[in-house]
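Bug #77: duplicate submission created two jobs. Keeping one. Sequence:
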Amino acid sequence: MSRFIPVLSLLIIASTAIAGDGGPAPASAPLPPGGAPPGTGSGDPLGGSLTFIMIGGMILFMWLLVIRPQRKEEKRRKALIDSMKPGHQVVTIGGVHGEVVSVGELTVEVSVTKGDKPVVMTFNRGAIATNVTLLNEAKPGAK
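Kept job's structure:
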């Protein structure tokens, strides 16, 4: 939420610039016969509602392009991590390929083999980028 505060403040500044509110008239300008200084009216026939419509549109735009795809990706990633089982082939975010030996609450033990010497390494669950076994099951005919 805190990252949207600068965006919203920028939108408000931009919308007031678009609305054409130039601020008060200079002090040296003579007053018209009505007594009100020029430029004090908004000049917006909709009464400022256009500004709120623009801000609402920008928020909707940000939600469609940023927030919604990010939530989908988080759900996909959580499903990937929760589906790991011993025997699955995985790739870590660092590019290490291996086979899951055991899955704990916070960690995953991955066996990486070089020649006949297997090495078991422990990773955080979030360090697993891809579950190759599930990808191969999802794509029939792929290895």
